[in-house]
Specification:
By secondary structure, the chain is mainly α. It is built from 4 helices and no strands.
């Protein structure tokens, strides 16, 4: 029996060694696959973000590119032509409306039915 016992222990140890080798092999495969995936992901992923929109806006506000006077003059140069166009169009509409209103009032004063304009002409 003593002979059978060492063979049996040797069989178990062989199985354990085989199982450990399979485990190491599976672990190596998973590490290789994970490394390949990480390499592919690093190539295909977008570059890291520098910051969000708020961070960018705050940075731009705190670090002006030009002096304030130059910034204000630039804004005025950009917006004044458009404001001028809108004001001239609004002015034209106001004057047109005033002219039409005066014409309507004048016509109503001239042609009053049975009103004072006919009796003042007769006197």
């Amino acid at each position: 029996m003593s002979m059978a016992s060492p063979n049996r222990d040797q069989g178990n140890s062989t199985e354990i060694i085989d199982e450990a080798l399979r485990l190491v092999d599976a672990l190596q495969r998973r590490l290789i696959v994970a490394g390949v995936r990480r390499g592919v992901n690093s190539v295909t992923s977008p570059p890291p973000r520098r910051g969000d929109v708020w961070e960018e806006a705050v940075r731009e506000e705190t670090e002006p590119d030009a002096p304030v006077a130059d910034q204000v003059l630039g804004i005025a140069r950009e917006t004044l032509p458009e404001v001028g166009r809108h004001l001239s169009a609004a002015g034209a509409l106001v004057f047109d409306a005033m002219g039409r209103s005066l014409s309507a009032v004048e016509r109503s004063l001239r042609y009053r039915p049975g009103g004072d304009s006919a009796s003042s002409d007769a006197k």
